[in-house]
């Protein structure tokens, strides 16, 4: 039994002082129901998550008390991906015909301040100033640039593209293009990464209606099939965020593992993908994730990015909706935003940010603390 | 007289005439962990022995923290007195790569592969006057 996505909804990302995170989630859920042409009472189950905006299952207070099982998912940046895997399996198993996945969030301004205790790390680690995701990303790209000759200009070009794509996406937060020189010369945050190379915590909501594939045409003329949804945690020896120490011998990280599992599940390879949404917590992450997901060799990004390959009209369009850099990162909604964008792309409904050439296969990837990754492959 | 207390018990030997970082080494697979733990992250073994890590290593990667972190950061600094600090992983041969603050915060003076020594120095002073000791990595002169 295949699984289809037949309804999608989004609440614009960014800052919406007039709505709570939960209300942004409900807004997205109503749009997804409308898109699928169903009512909330038709939904048989739901999985959802939010890191900072309350319990996702409180959505039933907004949408209606129908008695369905609504299961909260809390898996950091992989919350959306983990909800999708759960819904995928619930339908694949034959238990349910139609359900919803929802994610929303509303974070305070400024960098996340994670609590070491929640991750089993001593309090000293936070007290001395090491409990910072931004430091990890900076140190990972610093090492990567050293090993594979990636330039600072390439970092700036990733942000430049993100803001160009954001300017074409009405639901994005950052909608003004910024010049490469301004990005490179903006305030240094964690060397080598400047202010405009980092995404910020933000707000937003996304919801999807999924059903068994043989029912898809009851709801839509343009079903998109979820061919793979995988999630992996770190193995011993991978270089991860919030690690007081690292092994002497490095192994591949959870991104590599989640990607290969997804390609195997879908029976396709990296070269078959027409549009890519890759975790871009900061500009360096997009560069490294291009290779870790299998879309190029390590170091090849320098020439690929300079040639424009990752732009919307290029050979491997990456983060066509502006990614985290232009949308910010509401943790519970971020992974589902990527899936929303890929459904638009495969339906041919992405407007100004539509990839040309009638894309057929689309790929999403998230990465987050404390070393987890989730991947989806969609096909029309 | 000022009392000096370690920032956490079991992180390094203190007080000691020659303090050192402490790791646990798995007696089954030989992998070292920092901070010391009761079980091995590599093989799940539970037979571990505590040992001192080498005091000199090489800088594996680094960054500079240019803005003052929010809580749980707890120094004596204010937004006005905050000074950027270096952060890096230092590869301690035969042990593990340990993340720590660097005594150097000038990006021009930091490079991957340079030799670093671990040192132990005051990080903050408590309200009762106690000096809290932390470990730092310092470029070899």
Please characterize this protein's 3D structure.
The complex is a heterodimer of chains A (380) and B (141). Chain A has helices spanning 21-36, 59-63, 79-92, 123-127, 133-148, 152-167, 180-185, 254-266, 283-292, 301-306, 323-327, 331-347; strands spanning 3-14, 46-49, 70-72, 98-106, 188-190, 193-194, 203-212, 224-233, 245-246, 275-278, 361-368, 372-379. The two termini of chain A are 16 Å apart. In chain A, helix 2 links the parallel strand 2 (46-49) and strand 3. A 9-stranded mixed sheet of chain A has the order 3-2-4-7-1-8-12-11-10. A two-stranded antiparallel sheet of chain A has the order 5-6. The longest helix of chain A is centred in the last third of the chain and has 17 residues, at 331-347. In chain A, helix 3 (79-92) crosses helix 12 and helix 6 crosses helix 9. Chain A has one domain (3-109, 199-379): Peroxisomal Thiolase, Chain A, domain 1, CATH 3.40.47. Chain A is α/β, with parallel strands linked by helices and 380 residues long. Helix content of chain A is 34%, strand content 20%. With 141 residues, chain B is mainly beta. Chain B has one domain. Chain B is built from no helices and 9 strands. In chain B, the strands form 2 sheets. A 5-stranded mixed beta barrel of chain B has the order 5-6-7-9-8. Chain B has a 3-stranded antiparallel sheet with strand order 3-2-4, with no helix packed on it. Chain B is globular and about 50 Å long. The model of chain B has no long low-confidence stretch (mean pLDDT 96). The A-B interface holds A 110-111, 113, 115-116, 122-124, 126-132, 135, 138-140, 142-143, 146, 187-193, 236-237, 243-248 and B 7-8, 11, 31, 33-35, 41-42, 60-67, 69-75, 85, 87-89, 91, 95-101, 107, 112, 123, 134.
């Amino acid at each position: 039994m295949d699984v289809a996505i037949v309804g999608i909804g989004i609440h614009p990302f960014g800052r919406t002082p007039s709505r709570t995170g939960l209300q942004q989630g409900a807004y997205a859920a109503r749009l997804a129901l409308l898109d699928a042409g169903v009512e909330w009472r038709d939904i048989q189950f739901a999985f959802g998550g939010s890191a900072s905006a309350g319990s996702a299952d409180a959505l039933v207070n907004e949408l209606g008390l129908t008695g369905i099982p609504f299961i909260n998912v809390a898996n950091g940046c992989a919350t959306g991906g983990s909800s999708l895997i759960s819904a995928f399996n619930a339908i694949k198993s034959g238990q349910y015909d139609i359900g919803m996945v929802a994610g929303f969030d509303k974070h305070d301004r400024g960098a996340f301040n994670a609590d070491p205790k929640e991750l089993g790390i001593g309090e000293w680690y936070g007290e001395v100033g090491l409990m910072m995701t931004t430091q990890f990303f900076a140190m990972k790209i610093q090492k990567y640039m050293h090993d594979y000759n990636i330039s600072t200009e390439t970092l700036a070009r990733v942000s430049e593209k993100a803001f160009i794509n954001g300017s074409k996406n009405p639901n994005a937060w950052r909608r003004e293009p910024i010049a490469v020189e301004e990005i490179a010369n903006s305030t240094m945050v964690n060397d080598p990464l400047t202010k405009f190379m980092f995404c910020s915590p933000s707000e937003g909501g996304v919801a999807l209606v999924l059903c068994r594939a043989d029912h898809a045409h009851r709801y839509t003329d343009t079903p998109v099939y979820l061919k793979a949804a995988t999630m992996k945690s770190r193995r011993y020896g991978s270089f991860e965020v919030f690690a007081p120490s690292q092994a002497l011998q490095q192994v591949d990280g959870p991104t590599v593992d989640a990607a290969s599992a997804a390609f195997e599940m879908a029976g396709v390879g990296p070269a078959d993908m027409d549009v890519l949404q890759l975790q871009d917590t900061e500009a360096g992450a997009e560069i490294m994730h291009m290779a870790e997901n299998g879309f190029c060799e390590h170091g090849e990004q320098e020439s690929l990015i300079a040639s424009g390959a990752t732009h919307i009209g290029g050979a491997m369009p990456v983060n066509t909706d502006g990614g985290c850099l232009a949308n910010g990162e509401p943790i519970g909604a971020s992974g589902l935003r990527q899936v929303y964008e890929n459904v638009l792309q495969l339906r041919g409904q992405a407007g100004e940010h539509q990839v040309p050439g009638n894309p057929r296969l689309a790929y999403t990837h998230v990465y987050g603390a404390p070393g987890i990754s989730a991947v989806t492959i969609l096909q029309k | 007289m000022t009392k000096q207390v370690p920032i956490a018990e079991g992180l390094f030997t203190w007080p000691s005439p020659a303090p050192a970082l402490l790791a646990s080494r798995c007696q089954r697979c030989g992998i070292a962990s920092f901070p010391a733990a009761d079980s091995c992250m590599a093989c799940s073994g539970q037979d571990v022995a505590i040992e001192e890590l080498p005091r000199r290593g090489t800088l594996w990667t680094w960054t500079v923290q240019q803005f003052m972190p929010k809580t749980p950061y707890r120094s004596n600094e204010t937004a006005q007195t905050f000074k950027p600090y270096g952060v890096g992983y230092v590869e301690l041969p035969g042990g593990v790569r340990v993340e720590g603050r660097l005594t150097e915060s000038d990006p021009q003076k930091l490079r991957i592969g340079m030799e670093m020594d671990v040192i132990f120095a005051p990080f903050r002073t408590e309200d009762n006057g106690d000096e809290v000791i932390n470990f730092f990595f310092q470029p070899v002169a």
